[in-house]
Structures
1.
Amino acid sequence: MARNIAQVLQELSDCKADERFCTSIASGNARSISYSELYRRSCAYAHYYRSVGIRPGDIVLVILRHSPHQFYSYLGAILAGAIPSFMPFPSPKQRSELYWADHAALFARIEPRLIVTYPENAGSARESAAASSIAICIAEDSILDRFAGDDTDFAGFDARLDDIACLQHSSGTTGLKKGVMLTHRMLLDHHAAYAQTIGFTDADSIVSWLPLYHDMGFIACFMGSLLSGTHLVALDPFEWVLRPRILFDAIEKFRTTFCWLPNFAFSHMVNAVRGSATWDLASMRAYINCSEPCKITTFDRFVDRFRDSGVSAEKLAVSYAMAENVFAVTQTPIGIPSTVRVAETASGTIEQRHLSCGFAVPGVDLRIFDSNTHVQLPDGEVGEIYIASPFLFGGYYRLPEKSRERLVDGWYATGDMGYLSEGQLYVTGRLDDMLIINGRNYYAHEMEALMADIPEIIPGRSVAIGIDEERSDATVMVILAECRDEAADVGHQVKRIVLERTGLALHAFIPVERGMLVKTTSGKLSRAKNKELYLRGQFEPRKFSGP
Amino acid sequence: MNETEIFLRIRSTVAATFHLIPETLVTRETTSATVDGWDSLSHAILIMNIEDAFGIELPFEAVSELANVGELADLVESVTSAKQSGSL
């Protein structure tokens, strides 16, 4: 009989008591957690939750830095029958009061009963949830001692497979985050299908620096390890950005076999791992590129740079994934180079090379529809990607209209554009204005709305665009805006507001004269045309002008 | 190496990392918001360039919270001094 997540956790504690669940590394110090310890400590949190009145179905938000308490508090909520969700921890550059103010709308909608965080956030978190009664749990070791107990009669063991196990929130502007409802059955069925696809067994192990609020960090790495009963090596995301070589140090030391990375991370490893040092990375079976458009040039640079350490094209794979399908939709075969297809533009003059995202994961059905006529398209023709699967989500938490917009007759309209060829999916872009920067989703219209707070910018006269920056081989965001004549230098202000509100460091702000930005025939500013003009150098990019 | 020499070397490293000409545009008050292209990933590249220029390793927690070039110079000075006193 199928077991729910709480039962799986208990069983792992019995069967693999002394085996490693995780090695959590911070500042060079490794902390090993066994399956029995994971269970015991998660039970302590579950006892705590019960003691403060958390009931089955209550929402518990985990807002913590890289720490084992992330795992304990999250799984403790599942044991208690509550519904946990990881949320991003504010970056040092974000203004704390704005971060929490932006959460007020989200909290009003989802009404969390408890937030697990640190003392410095307690006051702000309470204020943000002013309309609802919310408890704050301070994540500290004393909880593990105070609430240790043998009684494990938790409500989570009685959860039905179709009960919601957790919420996975989309990235982007906080107030508009959508919580994908994931049931126990969806998590378990997705895991079985994806593990079969990549040939993942309990002899494998995973290394990850990915934050747990991201579906790749949460589902592929944390849940992937847990549901296979294998070893996860978890690195601090902030530390990895500054010292990306720690990923290779960890692979060499712990002989891990799988790693999931967004495209920018491959580039960052190439750009920021210095010197002639090599690593023994022979244990790795696959580095899976996911969650951003995957670039052929990035793969080529990664192989060239780290060939002497054992990286080869055969070990680089691609997956197309989204929280709405728990995670993986497609996957390229492990152990062989991903297919590259040469496509021609309509005029036949420009060749484009597309990297395959692979074949549908077992059970997943993929179709391409014309986004205007809604007619299904044949192989090779670009349209909107629709998916159906046994683990497709049932909707967004407390957002019935948004759910109905995207879910029609069991099919999910992804908003991604692409085509099928010989069973493999090729993703070519987005139908809407979503930009993916460093693995996180931002909507151009939301970034443009932030410009309304800046009096020097003419209202409604700005566009946010994504640019492939050659030097770093990464996608960056640029904002072009028409400014009033007297506007001297608003760039600092724009960058500060974007950073404080979204955590994104804007690559460049380009002020232009009134009337310079191009409109579409319907009178709206055209992001595509203005991007083209920007890339052609039509807007003089303003260089650094000093403080 | 005195305070001025440390700052001049930092100024030149910041200018070279972000292609700023002339390098006197970089002051102690310069922040990431005033320089195009200074994001979290290029910040990591800058820190590596600084570490290479001074032969030191900076503590990552402190590096994540720097407000401006002046604070970066102060951090480098303290790490350099600690290294020198440790080697005496």
Note: The first strand of chain A starts at residue 20 and ends at 26.
2.
Amino acid sequence: MTALIEARDLWLKLGTQSVLRGVDLTLGAGEIVTIVGPNGSGKSTLLRTLLGALRPDRGLVTRAKGLRIGYIPQRLALDATLPLNVARFLALPKSRGRAATAAALARVDLAGFERRPLAGLSGGQMQRVLLARALLEAPQAILMDEPTQGLDQPGEAAFYRLLQEVRTETGAAVLMVSHDLHVVMAASDRVVCLNGHVCCEGAPAVVSNAPEYRALFGEGTQGALALYRHHHNHDGCDHA
Amino acid sequence: MLDDFLVRAALAGIGVSLATGPLGVFVVWRRMAYFGDATGHAAILGVALALASGLPIGLGSLLVAGAMALTVAALTGRGWAADTVLGVLAHSALAAGLVAISFVHGVRVDLQSFLFGDILAVSRMDLLFIWGGALLVVALIAWRWNRLLLSSVNADLATAAGERPARETLILTVALAVVVALSLKIVGALLISALLIIPAAAARPLARSPETMVVWATLMGAGAVLTGLWSSLTWDVPAGPAIVSASAALFLLAIMVGRLRRA
């Protein structure tokens, strides 16, 4: 397995707070990795460091040469004074052509949304526009920061199903931060629990047929979600 | 034609609007209003420096405004509580500049013209400086347009696309210092950021794309400058405040037109 992104012993302070303390993480080609952790555990910071938006104080991030990354930020804090429609947004910094843009929008079920103002989209539509934008990069890796925050559970499941289809079609690796400690995308190959450092990692439990799972999620999610059981074996990883 | 002080004043105002339009929209989109204030007020300190050292006023204010803009950009980049720090810097720079000017002896200083502008006293040299600077700013922003836009929407998206958003911030910072230096004579240090923000805000209800917003902001700026100039002549009021008042009136008008259009 070739590593697309490899982080070794990352340390990072933001202000006086030591946010990352010796984090190691590898994203292999085609892998789906979910990062979970309590608030303030450094999940977003880690993702932004892997992306190259933050520089670690110590440690090394190695990205494969010429790696194409599709990035989906936590939310797009678009200033209401900026008039931007979907097509124009997707054409930044350079246009991918009308046909490719239309195809990417159709892939995320937003066909014909080109001229809609970005500021008028719902949360779920915005997430799918961001996914379309990521797809236009022909990404080898898709990095996402809490992509389903603000969506209800059917919306979350639908987004994960779409993501899984896209993953199968493109073969891109997926690295995402999840806002839920225990519920993750079922297709995750690995779940990494972070709290300043890596507390534990493993595969999510495939329990979608268990009655408890149905009681929790109902039938509507069609197995897109799964539970992750934490198995911390050292101190400093307490969370709810 | 350039012998007429009115023609020079009008040309100077249009020149400044060419630069404040494209830069002003970014000041609004990126919420850099206080940033503009700090840089504008620092220009007064630059005037004091120029008077004391014999440098041209334009160069002095460009240098000090540039230093202030770079300082502010560096501080914000490091995650300082931007609002407070900018407030401290903006007003300290203005006060320090006023104190420093009072120490400069031997020069009869018309302080009012630096605070509120003196558009009717624009010389041919000033015109050259204003148009040269304005065209530089326009060229800079046109060259980086898409990148500036993306990094204003979201810096991390720009990073993911292989851009360096810090570089775009630096470009806007330099452009801001240039615009401050060349608007000093038109509206004065106190109201420079008003000339950046108000026309851009007035352009918003009329614009459907970033590009049309720039065009509207530029037209609004030029309209405000010419209207202000005319009022200044007619009623003998200071040109700078007259220009800013005119742009405020245009802002109200634009909001009403925007409402009517949507209704």
Note: The interface with chain A takes residues 28-31, 79, 146-147, 149-150, 152-161, 163, 200-201, 204, 207-210, 212-213 of chain B (CB under 8 Å).
3.
Amino acid sequence: MRLKPLLGQITVYTVLIAGSAIMAFPFYWMLATSLKSPQEAQQAVPVWVPERLKPANWAAAARLGAQGGSMWWGGYRAGRSVVLRVYTGEKGPEPVVTIPTPPAAFSDPRADNTRIETAFEDGWWEVTLTNGGQESFRLLPVRLRIAKSYPTYRLELQPDSISSRGEDWELSWSNLAPGVLGYVLHNFREAWYAAPFGRYFFNSFFTALTQVLGGLFIAAMAAFALARIPFPGKEFVFSLIIATLMIPGEVLLIPNYILLSRLGWLDTYYALIVPWLASVFGIFLLRQFYLSLPQDLFDAARIDGATYWSQLWRIALPLSVPGMVTYGIFTFLGAYNALLWPLIVTNSPEMRTIQLGLQAFIGEAGSDYGALMAASTLSILPIVLGYFLAQKQFVQGVARSGIK
Amino acid sequence: MGTRLALYLGLGVVAVLVRLLWELRFAGAGSYALAAVAALAAGLWAIQGKPLPLAWLGLAIGLAGTVAGYGLPWLSLLIPLGVFVGYWGWARHVSEKDLGAFWGWALVWPAVGLLLVWQVIPAFYALWLSFLDRFNFIGHSRFVGLLNYEILLTRDPLFWKAMGNTFWFVAFTVPIGIGLATLMAILLNEKVKLQGLFRTLYFLPYITALTAAAAVWDWIYNPEFGFLNWLLGTPGFQWLSTPEGIFARILRPLGINLSGFWAGPSVAFVAVMAMSIWHFLGYQIVVLLAGLQNIPKEYYEAAELDGASWWQKVRFITWPLLSPTTFFLFTLSLIGAFQVFTQVLILTPTGGVLQDTLTLALYLYNKGFRDSNFSYASALAVVVFIMILVLTLVQRRVLERRVTYEA
């Protein structure tokens, strides 16, 4: 098909680009928000490029991070001093620096053991925070009050939030000694520490991979028998399998929940894996593949004395790799992205899959959208990376599902 | 013998399944004993004529499994294992046809067994539960026949609310989704540059988990700081907690007041739908693109020779020849609409203001797992099952006639 050359081409590209911009926007917005401080995320006019992505801030973050701990991840180690310079030009009222204590804490060793010295040098205030205690900390939150009477002032590291307090401006940093990575990925690190995402990822990967491998094994055996072995009762088995296709997932939620509870399997990996091991989709897909292989291959193997078992393993399986990849991708996606089933059959935090962990985190994070978007980004990262690595397989697998 | 071997194996597996049912309190010890004895008897029958040492060993293992299975359920797996030990001895003395019978069943049993235990039996169990009164883990429940169905269909406004929402969901997302996807797929199929890049971008939402995607849209819809309100210049608009129907909202300035079902889906539910269309569009585009690429080029060349316009080619070649794919997507979206859950739970955790975003799946979850009323939820599930079944059949009958399968 050819459109009327130029005008048509322009229309096509305009529509396609506009469409892809809408499709991609939520991803951009998720990523951008995940790099913002709370105040930046809650601007009336959207901030397109977060402060944390600006290289000018990275140098300061690295220097301050190196003072407190390491250049990459920063920190506030015992015995270290972090020096913040506030360039004011002239000497006016002394800025007041405090370390905010978490609400509802009896004592805060970080604030109690920090020595704060403020001195005026040539045109700037030099604020030195020294960790005099024995304990090291991951973060150094700092609050600084500076008089509004200064016409201008400049800071090395942009504060995360600025608010007005009477005669002063109150500037605050969630971490004054972040290091480069600790600065850019602040929300990611905080989200990672706020909930056991490592455990969630393990649960998701473990259950999804087991489902893929176990399901593949079971589906390959059944598909091979249905495609290549004549046996009495084959039609019956086949129609039974087709019949199960008609049962929607909702019908199975309650009875399977009861079965699992009677087996004592609730809140275990079994509950997440076993009910979905046998996949009708997989059986159909692989059967289609095996049917398309030439019969001669199997006859030759039979004459050479190969049993059905070794025909399956030596001939059918190696020749159906594309089908198995399609099945694997779909099953993995389904298991990794599932929310309803894990929500029903697990209840302890240790058994949560990543989606369930994210759902719980949404409840806990409240209005900290930076951390929330960081957690969301983390949760989709493995799938998106996998998609970019095996794009062809993903797309072909989906396309194949639509063609009879 | 031969098929006797398959029978022996089959009865062995059945014995294991019955042992499992006993464990699940669906069957008694007696039925297990019966099944196990039947399996062993079939074994003896299979052995007849060719009594080999390994066959006897297999039978002995089966017997041990039967006994041990009384105490530890999983030890009943020794019964089918015994069949394989026996087979090892027999293999050389068995005809080709009998080998097929044995291996065929041996290979399908794991899948069939799992499907029976986790899909077929539970489906019937759900049906049975729906006839009971308030079945849950506490106390006894009695058989009440169709009471749950009667309450559900005649006295439960929430069920009809959820049905109405499902209807609107289909009525909005299916035509808009398929329409947009068809447009995009046709445009992508024009030899555009960077086709791969476009396809990647369009497909990306589909592989993202709904949970994360919904979290992002929740943030975009945020009334105070959300991007959408900034874009549309409607600060403070509560996208996800406005229960007013959109038809009512649009027509109110004209002096027309609509209420109930005819007020249309609530603003909040339309927001959920927009997110769902975004999520599913990439899948539809990729499937349609594959369908488009299957249409032979000759048709277009012939049409061009006859001087057909671009639109004529789309209307008279692409659309009819794409109809099997469109039909497939239509069926899939229809079934999918009955299962909308995740995005609703994340965007409107309680089912929205006045339950305006309640979907059937969410209602089922609420009834079953928040109110712990398993029987009522089962009745709901059975009704959904029947509806999907009827709709699919009607679709087959009515719509599929218009589908052009052959080029």
Note: The CA atoms of residues 292 and 322 of chain B lie 7 Å apart.
4.
Amino acid sequence: MDGTVLAHGLGGAKDLPIPVDMAVAGAVAALVISFSVLALAWRTPRYDASRGGLPLTVPPAATALSWVLRALGMAFFLYVAMAAVLGEDTLVNPVFGSFYVLLWVGIVPASLLFGPFFKAVSPARTLAMLVAKLTGAPADRGLLPYPERLGYWPAALTLFAFVWMELVFPHATQLGPVRLWFALYLGTMLIGSAVYGTTFLARADPFEVYSTLVGRLSVWGRRDGRLVVRSPLANLDATPVRPGLVAVVGVLLGSTAYDSFRESPTWLRVVQSLGIERAWPDTAALVVFTAGVTLVFAAATVATGVSDHQARRHLPDLFAHSVVPIIVGYMVAHYVNFFVEFGQRTLIDLSDPLTTGADYLGTGDWQINYWLSMHPTVLASTKVLAIVTGHVLGVVAAHDRAMKLLPRKHQLVGQLPLLFVMVGFTAGGLYLLFAS
Amino acid sequence: MPRRRLIAVAALTLTATLGLSACGGDDEPTTTPASPQGSAPTQSGEQSPDPGSGSEVEQSGTRIELTRTGDVFDPSGARVKVKRGEAVTLVIVSDTAGSLHVHSTPEQDVEYRQGTSTHEVVIDRPGVVEVESHDPDLVVLQLEVR
């Protein structure tokens, strides 16, 4: 508020730790439910992307609507870009809230409600489509076909670049670095899509890949190109499997866990006693968390008997979709209060993007509602519920996939390592919420 | 079917084990965030040896002692539990003047001088509030406001 630039993350007070009894109750519930699923759930695969779901008739006006959405996404981007270029370098500049809160955290609720939300409004995609229109090339194909063996690896890399910027980089809340990051991002996306078409964006754009993945937990799906409404678990099962998917979910889950860890008093004492720039041990910890989650999960998926025609090395990516509900549960737990409160703050600040006293959007005189902060028990229960719900959905998704992939005699025992790892992720997540 | 029963039994056993071990394992850390025993911040709530001098409201608050020697703070990142709406008294002993930022919403600044100075901050919403020094950039305290 005082207009000085502080080398500190966004937001003021952070959430209180969750009470220990809630953390333990959550972990025990996760464990009991997991083994109940294993012991009692169905024995033949239930979800099948090629059937099921209620087909919807898309009205012709939908094409027009999609361009309206693109225009809105572009207008918002340009509005925030204006604040990024012409606005003051202070925390009341809405750039930071728009980037780290509305965009990054907002991807989760928006995609849960509307499916692949970012794809529909992405300025990078809109620009790529306009360029393709001007040159007369088909938008989805560029000069070269996208190398399929790269899969989602570029997105794992760009997602890491985002979370590093957000969680590690000491100057994450200064305009210069944010502008530079976004310019590099946009440049990479435009060059990539010029070469490989918009397919590149579906594999490399961190926001689009993340949003489309979370959108798999919405009710909106596609079957043979038709829009269908179906259960989120059936929708999740239809997630396309590509190389690197396991790294994408590893970066998303590991970085959220790291976000709790970095604020724990224990880690704080360690980094502050080292006497070196905090970014170094923080970078190391972020790598350990993201790579650790990826490797542990991958190891658990391959620790099973397989049939002759199933290559073991494909298993991590084949099971990776089951981490998506766990990610969403974590994200809700970590960011629900931050999103609600700093989101309000951002909407207020957006009305005066250049700090000139303007009130362009009419939101300038809103007051922030701190109800959630004032009710820590409600907040803590929400967090535990989100994590346990995500865990249960993840276990169910993994179980169904195991029924499909594993030979009959390995179907149950083959799931055990994965189940243990998932319980470990959930208990670890709860522990971090309790200890940070 | 025996396999199925076996798994059910295994499930129950594991549940019980984890339930127990979780309880056992989590008992210990509950004390960790409470207060940095033996280090500088003293939570001198009731034993404040100052019955004569007036205000009884402040007596129930928390008193935290901070020392700055050069670029080194003691404590450095300790977690202290405080009550919301109550005055937290920071006693700062420093060999240079400087300022601390209290990252509540809205932020509060504490400007301290060379020598010993006493400051009060009040935080009226629950949460964990970091008290930071800038130059050097360090988290000095985390106030766990309940």
Note: Confidence is low (pLDDT under 50) at residues 1-7 of chain A.
